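Course exercise 7: structure representation. Students receive a sequence record and must write out the corresponding structure in token form. The form below is the worked example handed out in class, using Bacillibactin exporter (418 residues). Read each field label carefully; the graders check that inputs and outputs are placed in the correct fields and that the protein name is recorded exactly as given.

STUDENT ID: A-19
EXERCISE PROTEIN: Bacillibactin exporter
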Amino acid sequence: MEAKKKWDLLSIASIPLTMTLANSMLIPVLPAMQKALGISPFKASLIITVYAAVAILFIPLAGYLSDRFSRKAVILPGLILVSAAGAGAGLAAVWADHAYGLIITARLIQGLGSAGCFPVVIPLVGDLFKKNEDVSSGLGIVETSNTFGKVLSPILGAALAIWAWYIPFFAIPIFSMLSFGLVLFLVKAPSKEEQQTADTGIRTFLRSIGSILKEKKWLYGIFAMGGICMFVIFGSLFYLSETLETRGMSSIMKGLVLAVPLACLCLASYLSGKWIGENKVVMKWTCFTGLLVAAAGLFILGWVQWSHTWWMVAMLAAASAGIGSALPSLDALITEGIEKEQRGTVTSLYSSMRFIGVAVGPPIIALLMDKSVMLLFMVLASTALVAAFITLIAIRPGEKGQAPGSRGAAGRRRSPAR
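STUDENT ANSWER:
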């Protein structure tokens, strides 16, 4: 990797860390929010869902703007919105008599800000590096930062909630503004000419997206897999958080237990990013194997319903590791397979699908928890298995219109990845 760009990459990696903290840090606090606000588990899950739901709508616009103007011009205002909304949610919790509605509104605004942050990070990494191997490695670091945020989130959220349940809201502006400073001063983003941004109107933009999706049908498979991965992760996290609460576990211990499967997710993402390099065949089978492992772990957990906490955590850790090993490959396939002038837009569509998984996971699991634990895990296992099947049919290196299994000289023009 280019040594002079390591600080750029580390600064960029702070963005997914911040965005993850802004959402996942609240998961271990949801039971406390239910009691303080007098709401149901389903309503509590909406505090997570609305953040992702509004991001789904605005991520494609953010991708388009980042392609037409610059990545930093979209990321920096997004971080400011995330920061302001976090403070607003905390103030509403402290002073308002009917805080729930105001918190939901603040989370909607926060989701709008997040739409311009993490989704734009993926194409920015692709812009910074010339070698595809460096792009894959950089994306592995970005996913590791994202998953490390998930590891840190339950511990930090539980620790802050010891003071008061709304304190995690006030922590969000601190992390957001720290990331803002790093990106502002340390990230030397490519110029508009180097980024090859597309100076097109909205109609031309929409036609070009339609053309890309028609030509590159493999993108639908990547989109679906990204959404499924996030659905499985956030759904299982919500279930684990609620289950640990019913077992009377202390806040800090609960945070530490939640961090175990997420640590496996983080480690698997890091190792996978190093392993895949620029070989598309390796990416395909890494995705398939990881998703198969995730499906197996969830299926076993639903079928063998031992009451031991260690058993549940161990199976979720295995499933999380499987998901973690697939994510860097998905990022690399979609980033290296799209030309730079369209990369922000297309990767933003991919990020929208991931946010759909984040949005629907907690409320669906909240509803399934009232019916059957076995059904809950069968649903999670089945979706992971569907994603593994999609990998087999959607990613086919070497076929017409798809990238070969590996590339030659680094200076060769980047061929579309699948």
